[in-house]
Specification:
- Chain B: Belongs to the SEN54 family.
- Chain B: This is tRNA-splicing endonuclease subunit Sen54 N-terminal domain-containing protein.
- Chain B: Keywords: tRNA processing.
- The complex is a heterodimer of chains A (about 250) and B (about 280).
- Helix content of chain A is about 35%, strand content about 25%.
- By secondary structure, chain A is α+β, with helices and mostly antiparallel strands.
- In chain A, the strands form two sheets. Chain A has a five-stranded mixed beta sheet. Chain A has a five-stranded mixed beta sheet with strand order 6-7-8-9-10.
- In chain A, β8, α6 and β9 form a beta-alpha-beta unit.
- In chain A, α1 runs antiparallel to α2.
- In chain B, α3 packs antiparallel against α4.
- The N terminus of chain B is likely disordered.
- In chain B, the strands form two sheets. Chain B has a six-stranded mixed beta sheet with strand order 5-1-2-4-3-7, with helices on one face. Chain B has a five-stranded mixed beta sheet with strand order 6-8-9-10-11, with helices on both faces.
- With about 280 residues, chain B is an alpha/beta fold.
- The chains are: A alpha+beta (about 250), B alpha/beta (about 280).
- The interface between A and B is large, with 72 and 67 residues.
Chain lengths: ~250, ~280
């Protein structure tokens, strides 16, 4: 994935690509080679239009900010055709989307590890993360972003019913729930260096549920429970650790 | 309702039968729609065999039951006569004697594997045992919900002990303490066991009403030794009304010395087990 993303980056720099800030999206025109790269790298969604020589893409705020301020391969202009600098973009986006700083930190945290990250709205979560292009794999993780700044209004997973609901949904779409806890340490820096002030902790939530059998319900055999041979969480954590120890970069 | 009893030896054979459990821990999470649409799996395919076998065994004739005497001051039953192999994985040993917690006693009584007596040698019926459990849970350290979870873990074949309570201690001073949820049985620091003051803290008021660890759970093991049980597969925490915060989870992880934690929620006759496993997603090529 990192190769594809690098190629997209080079191509965009070469063509001096500019995105137009509009509401909560950034619109960008791409030539055929870039269209393919956008699709392979999973940035943005194509807009269907009659235009033949270029393909318009719609980028989310996170995607646009990542391409602009982290990968530094596009410029973003406002409605007056004025280019917005990093700080202006940050202020704009933070004002447009609740919890944007944490969402963006989560997005870039995963993208920098070369995971494919897409919006998770249709699954009731913040993002979905894949190892490869979604056409090649099923999504691995449904991602929820939690921060220590959540007040009661924005707090996620407040009640057990929230967990059951989210986990149930994740289960039906074969995704594991990944919670990214984001905490902010220190102030003072401005974007994009302020991003380094945030810490990300990754936790996977796994669950299993069964009905407690009573003597009376013996005639209806109860459901299965926990696997007994080994703790799947133990082996999962172990394999993640092994992977961490043998990181390979292309 | 006709009485259903359990052949305790047959039951242990089931418990110690490691080969029955096949779990592919590498498989992706998926939902088995054929079982029940209200069930949600996180990982692996779980065999139905063990539970169906269990259900069958419940209808077999009872052999001789073990005997124990309930000691109210300790809130435990002292085992007088042992029948069957289950005692390698049930009860704690102090000075060569075996004692069962209320959940262990109640569980064995329910399946007809243990007859419990009062101090005056009269029979202690099941209804009285249920009654003791229904009393303020802090007296016995176990609520009805904890008992339901305990019982089901036993059905699945796990070895279950109270969190941070040593399985076996020699030269122990048996002491009672009305303030704590469970009698403090160890006054002497045992090599490798938890510090005494920590036990006091654990069973004191610190955890009441909050998420707290209740059981150390071990996988089925025919070679389980109370003298050296090893590390539990996971520590089970019973939750309060609300999901634990990140800080609470971290505090519990620290207290449990790195054993994996599972959190159980018992609601409306359903138990959910949740894990919040720390991971580090790999950097991909």
């Amino acid at each position: 994935m990192s190769t594809i993303v690098s190629r997209l980056q080079s191509s965009l720099i070469e063509s001096n690509s500019q995105g137009l800030l509009s509401g909560c999206s950034v619109l960008l025109a791409a030539h055929p080679e870039q269209t393919e790269l956008f699709n392979h790298a999973c940035f943005g969604h194509p807009i269907i239009s009659a235009e033949k020589d270029k393909q318009w893409f719609q980028l989310s705020l996170e995607e646009a900010l990542y391409l602009c301020s982290v990968m530094k391969c596009i410029k973003v202009v406002g409605e007056n055709k004025c280019e917005k600098n990093d700080e202006e973009l940050w202020r704009y986006m933070t004002s447009k989307k609740v919890g944007f700083p944490f969402l963006f930190k989560a997005y870039s945290h995963l993208r920098m590890k070369n995971w494919v990250v897409r919006a998770g709205t249709q699954y009731g979560v913040d993002f979905v993360a894949y190892r490869h292009h979604p056409a090649l794999v099923h999504s691995e993780y449904a991602v929820l972003v939690l921060s220590d700044e959540d007040d009661n209004k924005n707090a996620r997973l407040k009640a057990w019913s929230d967990f059951h609901c989210t986990l149930r949904l994740c289960g039906s779409v074969a995704k594991t729930l990944l919670i990214l806890h984001i905490s902010k340490n220190g102030d003072g820096a401005i974007f994009p260096s302020s991003l380094e002030n945030y810490c990300v902790e990754e936790r996977i939530v796994t669950s299993c549920m069964w009905r407690i059998p009573s003597m009376a319900s013996v005639s209806n055999p109860p459901l299965e429970g926990l696997p007994v041979t080994s703790d799947p969480n133990l082996s999962q954590t172990m394999s993640e650790k092994e992977k961490k120890d043998t990181v390979r970069k292309k | 309702m006709e009485a259903k009893t359990m052949d305790s030896d047959a039951f242990e054979r089931l418990s110690l039968c490691e080969g029955t459990y096949g779990c592919d821990s590498d498989s992706e999470g998926s939902v088995d729609d054929s079982v029940d649409d209200e069930l949600c799996y996180a990982s692996g395919d779980i065999p139905k065999l063990q539970f169906r076998l269990m259900v069958k065994l419940m209808f077999t004739v009872r052999k001789e039951a073990s005997k124990a005497r309930w000691i109210e001051e300790l809130r435990m039953a002292e085992v007088l006569e042992k029948k069957g192999k289950m005692w390698t994985t049930t009860g704690i040993v102090r000075n060569g004697k075996t004692y069962c917690s209320i959940e262990e006693s109640l569980y064995l009584a329910e399946i007809g594997a243990l007859d419990i007596f009062n101090g005056d040698d009269t029979t202690l019926p099941l209804s009285d045992m249920y009654g003791k459990l229904a009393e303020d849970k802090n007296r016995h350290g176990c609520s009805w919900e904890s008992f339901e979870v305990y019982r089901h873990l036993k059905f699945l074949g796990y070895i279950v002990g109270r969190h941070n309570v040593s399985w076996s201690i020699k030269n122990a001073n048996i002491k009672t303490d009305a303030q704590e949820g469970m009698a403090e049985l160890d006054n002497i620091r045992d090599r490798g066991s938890v510090d005494n003051s920590f036990i006091t803290e654990m069973f004191g008021n610190l955890y009441i009403g909050e998420t707290r660890p209740i059981f150390d759970v071990y996988p089925p093991n025919s070679k389980f030794r109370k003298s050296s049980p090893g590390n539990p597969s996971f520590v089970l925490c019973l939750t309060s009304g609300y999901p634990p915060s990140k800080q609470e989870i971290e505090d519990l992880e620290t207290r449990c010395n790195g054993s994996p934690l599972k959190f159980c929620i018992v609601e409306h006759g359903r138990v959910s087990f949740l894990s919040f496993s720390k991971v580090e997603l790999p950097v991909l090529p």
